[in-house]
């Protein structure tokens, strides 16, 4: 059974088997109210630094590079940074180039589902057996509050008409895929006050359609999106909803909302080690002397070279002093890791450690980290600390953070 080696479809496999995403799909054909297109597709990822975008040829080269170095790589997925099917030509070509290598690998793809009626048959013919569709609602009145614009066959639809079209195409596409033996996973973004009460109905319908598993995910409001001021759905609320829906069908509980260029085990992103392109120099390598400001920045890093650690996983902060001339590592501050998994999420223990971590860097202007949750960002902001998410070297991340701080001061 292929799904036994798929880390997302099988919770038991996610500590053992790795996946890689090919970030070949930058465009999207809809506009979700929780999305800011500067970031990866929020239907699969959490808002953060946008992934690199690759051509099919580069994606194929990257696959070989990763395959050689990660022996338990079992899945190649296409999950943005926009929508896989809104970029069908490059998505298809990328898969074909890798299929031609004849490796033992599972292909996987994630989509908003709008174009499924057009491409489902081809996907089946290509032998794709794992497809994720994000279905947030069945009711167009709810959809009208989630989708700003739906672009379909050279026309733009808004409001109920756009949502109706989305839902109709999603349901048609899912039914076709299931009938043709594809294991369909459904992502549902839970937005409090909009679709939360409706999720059990969505899950029930998905069960009727024969989907394999549903994955209820928290809304993490992307800065700059229409929902930017919406509260992030807490993991407690998500888990309660999953418990309720588990009575209906199997629920995914180990999703990491990973990047469109994620590489490695779900819990250990190694995308930093496998970059085909460097971040734009003008964005990331800004000599400090041009900035003319002094800052203190706390960095989370596993070995001090890369910004490759989540804020909640940090056991120490590297404290950098930035002045007109240079970045200087002035101190290392030990803290207790406050996030070690969902079981401790929202617990008093976690809260105490989180407060201690924030206190430890209270004198800093910013924290430079690979990932940080919405609540963590808000808590830091209360102390005047800006969160900067980044995914490359510490040095370039510091330059990027300084640029962000300078921009904020200028606003
Ligand atoms: Fe990627 Fe998605 Fe395939 Fe997995 S991710 S396209 S099904 S190979 Fe997995 Fe990442 Fe959660 Fe997605 S943990 S965001 S569910
Ligand atoms: Fe953004 Fe929605 Fe498109 Fe994903 S599907 S990229 S969340 S607009």
Q: Can you put this structure into words, describing what you see?
A:
With 411 residues, the protein is of the alpha/beta class. The chain has two domains: 2-273, TIM Barrel, CATH 3.20.20.70; 295-408, Nucleotidyltransferase, domain 5. Helix content is 32%, strand content 20%. The chain is built from eleven helices and 16 strands. The protein has helices at residues 56-69, 88-99, 116-125, 140-146, 159-179, 199-209, 235-246, 281-284, 348-360, 374-382, 394-410, and strands at residues 18-21, 30-32, 73-78, 106-111, 130-134, 147-152, 155-158, 183-190, 213-218, 263-265, 268-269, 295-299, 316-322, 327-334, 366-369, 386-389. The strands form three sheets. Strands 9-8-5-4-3-1-10-11 form an eight-stranded mixed β-sheet. The chain has a five-stranded mixed β-sheet with strand order 14-13-12-15-16, sandwiched between helices. A three-stranded antiparallel β-sheet has the order 2-6-7. β6 and β7 form a beta hairpin. The longest helix has 21 residues, at 159-179. It is globular and about 60 Å long. Bound molecules: FE(8)-S(7) cluster and iron/sulfur cluster.
Question: What's the SSE blueprint?
Answer:
Blueprint: E1 18-21, E2 30-32, H1 56-69, E3 73-78, H2 88-99, E4 106-111, H3 116-125, E5 130-134, H4 140-146, E6 147-152, E7 155-158, H5 159-179, E8 183-190, H6 199-209, E9 213-218, H7 235-246, E10 263-265, E11 268-269, H8 281-284, E12 295-299, E13 316-322, E14 327-334, H9 348-360, E15 366-369, H10 374-382, E16 386-389, H11 394-410
Helix pairs in contact: 1-2, 3-5, 4-5
This protein binds FE(8)-S(7) cluster (CLF) and iron/sulfur cluster (SF4).
